[in-house]
C-alpha cells in the first residue's frame, strides 16, 4: 500500500469514528454535537450573546442562530432581549435544557482531548502541525470549523466574504 493510501485510510477511519459517535450521541440524547457544544457554552456563560457563542466555538453567528432555533423549538433555550441595551439578545438554558445537557453523554472530543493532553509537548505540536498541513493540502483553510468532532455541514466563505453552507455528504445533514 502506498503511503498516501495509508494516510487516506487513516483519515477515513477518523471520519468514520466521528460519524459513528455522532449517531450514537444523537440516538442516546436526541442532540447533535453542535447542539451540545452550544448548550455547553450557554451553560458555562449564562445569558450569553449569540455573537459571543459563535466567537468562543469558532462558528459563524448564522450557524449558531440556526442551532439555537432548533434548541429553542425543543424548549431547551430561551432568548431574551436585554433590558439595558435592546439591541442585545441573551441566551440561557431552560430547566429542561439544563437537564438534557446534564444527562447527555460525554462528547467525543473530551475523550480525544484527555488523550491528546497526555502526550508530550513536542508530540502535540507535531500533530497540530501535521493536521494543519493536511487541511491546507485539502484546500480546507476557508472552512468554518469549530473545535468539535462532528460530521455535518461544511461552511465556506464566498467571494463576498459571506458564509455559505453545503452538506459534506447526503448522509451528513445531521440536524445541527
CATH topology name, in short, is Arc Repressor Mutant, subunit A
Strand order of the biggest β-sheet: 1-3-2
Indicate the percent of residues in helices: 40-55%
Q: How many strands in all?
A: 5
Protein name: HTH-type transcriptional regulator MgrA
InterPro entries: ArsR-like_HTH (IPR011991), HTH_MarR-typ (IPR000835), Tscrpt_reg_MarR-type_CS (IPR023187), WH-like_DNA-bd_sf (IPR036388), WH_DNA-bd_sf (IPR036390)
Domain HTH marR-type: 4-136
Keywords: DNA-binding, Transcription, Transcription regulation
Please explain how this structure is put together.
By secondary structure, the chain is of the alpha+beta class. The chain is built from 7 helices and 5 strands. It has one domain: Winged helix-like DNA-binding domain superfamily/Winged helix DNA-binding domain (Arc Repressor Mutant, subunit A, Orthogonal Bundle), CATH 1.10.10. Helix content is 55%, strand content 12%. The strands form 2 sheets. It has a 3-stranded antiparallel sheet. Strand 4 (153-157) and strand 5 (163-167) form a beta hairpin. Helix 3 (50-57) crosses helix 4. The termini are far apart. Pfam families: MarR. This is HTH-type transcriptional regulator MgrA. GO terms for molecular function: DNA binding; DNA-binding transcription factor activity. Residues 4-136 form the HTH marR-type domain.
Amino acid at each position: 500500500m502506498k503511503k498516501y493510501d495509508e494516510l487516506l485510510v487513516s483519515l477515513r477511519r477518523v471520519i468514520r469514528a466521528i460519524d459513528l459517535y455522532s449517531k450514537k450521541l444523537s440516538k442516546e440524547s436526541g442532540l447533535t454535537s453542535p447542539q451540545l457544544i452550544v448548550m455547553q457554552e450557554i451553560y458555562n456563560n449564562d445569558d450569553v450573546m449569540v455573537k459571543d457563542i459563535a466567537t468562543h466555538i469558532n462558528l459563524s453567528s448564522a450557524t449558531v442562530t440556526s442551532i439555537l432555533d432548533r434548541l429553542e423549538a425543543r424548549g431547551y433555550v430561551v432568548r431574551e432581549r436585554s433590558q439595558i441595551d435592546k439591541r442585545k439578545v441573551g441566551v440561557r438554558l431552560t430547566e429542561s435544557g439544563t437537564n438534557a445537557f446534564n444527562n447527555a453523554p460525554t462528547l467525543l472530543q473530551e475523550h480525544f482531548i484527555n488523550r491528546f493532553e497526555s502526550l508530550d509537548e513536542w508530540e502535540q505540536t507535531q500533530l497540530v502541525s501535521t493536521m494543519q498541513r493536511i487541511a491546507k493540502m485539502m484546500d480546507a483553510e476557508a472552512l468554518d470549523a469549530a473545535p468539535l468532532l462532528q460530521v455535518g455541514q461544511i461552511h465556506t466563505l464566498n467571494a463576498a466574504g459571506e458564509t455559505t453552507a453545503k452538506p459534506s455528504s447526503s448522509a451528513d445533514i445531521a440536524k445541527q
